[in-house]
Amino acid sequence: MAADRFSNLLSTQALAIDPPRLREITLKVAAVNGINLGQGVCLLPVPEAVKRAAHRAIDAGINRYTNPRGLPELRKAIAEKLLRHNGLTVDPESELLITCGSTGAFEALCAAILNPGDEVVCFAPFYPYHRNTLRRFGAKISYVELQPPDWSFSMPALETAISPHTKLLLINTPANPTGKVFTAEELNCIGELAARHDVLVVTDEIYEYMTYDGARHISPATIPSLRDRTITIGGYSKTFAITGWRIGYMALPAELSTVITPILDSIYICPPAPLQRAVADALSELGGEFYCRLAGEYRAKRDYFAAALREAGLKPFPTQGTYYMMADFSERFPQYNADEFVDHMIKTARVGAVPAADFVPESAGATWMRFCFAVPDEMLERAAENLKALR
Ligand code: PLP
After folding, report:
1. What gap in Å lies between CA 23 and CA 39, rounded to an integer?
2. 234 CB less than 6 Å from ligand 1?
3. Pairwise CA distance, residues 296 & 298, whole Å
4. What is the CA radius of gyration of the chain?
5. What is the whole-number distance in angstroms between the Cα of residue 46 and the centre of ligand 1?
């Protein structure tokens, strides 16, 4: 209604945003008192060390604006973690910025480099916020298809997608929604192409700690040909289950950091000060075993839920990373498209998922949906029980 009333006032940026199916699904699932495994929020508890650190920071009076680049102690802690976990050497003074979530980092990067008509190469299925942001900046997106079941892609297709107008190539590893973890071989080839065509690479690594079955997270910026042309984006929304805190970061060449700092300053000045400090403290408090346990807990949830989907006659694709699972329904339910099937599943089994249309450019024919398994075991068990009613 509001959009109708103000439609002649709306900017091209506002009009570029696709309303996600997810919102509709959430309402439909609530209407049947069902279980929503569509939404990508993590419903698991926040580690005690993280919560305690936030209380301490507020009590210690860390409640004012910080430097727009972020609190020095958080930059230092993240630079240490980037070296330890990712093998990336980053100068916390000149090559690291703290942002309002990884979303804030991607927004600022796009603001810094994209003019309307600039081209960006994106793998599909993609994370819909990436597409919405790119569209708001007027970017022309060239998609490179990831093919199930292993979500591999063709290098010639990638090279064809790159044109003289391409400024940016977007990687998300581990990837939402496919769970794909890019291999060293793939990243080396991407590096070779990016260098040959002189394009920047942005990599969203928000699910870096959630990898399974020996799949190893590799930060693209560790590939020598990508080191000086890559912006590495990450954050703590998922790792610490604090999606509402809005703490993310970007590691990037110093020249770009100088350009992006005043952009961050002008968008929101700084991320929440006490929460920056809390994440810095938690990073030094939580040891390697925390991250191992995290991956182990998610792997168990993934295995349990994949079995439940199979039992319900659906076909889950192997998930190497993230806390999402894509599944195909077409063998048992060939009569439906993805939107229709998700509606049907909500009605008969009272379980919600996100249909393919949110993740692929041309959804016709895509018989997939995405489930999020970052929920308590008891909720996954109820979902598994409900799915038995699917017919
Ligand atoms: N990037 C990807 C691939 C995501 O799936 C999400 C959340 O679902 C985000 C970024 C958002 O991260 P943040 O909370 O750090 O902005």
Report:
1. 8
2. no
3. 5
4. 21
5. 17
Q: Which amino acid is at 340?
A: E
Asked if 371 and 309 count as a contact pair (C-beta separation under 8 A), the reply is yes
User: Ligand 1 pocket, 235 CB below 6 A?
Assistant: yes
CA 389 – ligand 1 centroid, Å = 32
Per-residue pLDDT tens for 283-328?
999 999 999 999 999 999 999 999 999 999 999 998 999 999 999 9
User: pTM of the predicted model, to two decimals?
Assistant: 0.96
Give distance in angstroms: CA of 279 to centre of ligand 1: 17
- φ/ψ bin of 142: left (φ > 0), alpha (ψ from -120 to 50), beta (otherwise): beta
Say how many Å lie between the CA of residue 334 and the centre of ligand 1: 32
Whether ligand 1 lies within 6 angstroms of the CB of 248 is answered as yes
* Bond before 149 cis per omega within 30 degrees: yes
- Compute the residue count for the chain: 391
H/E segment holding residue 97: strand 96-99
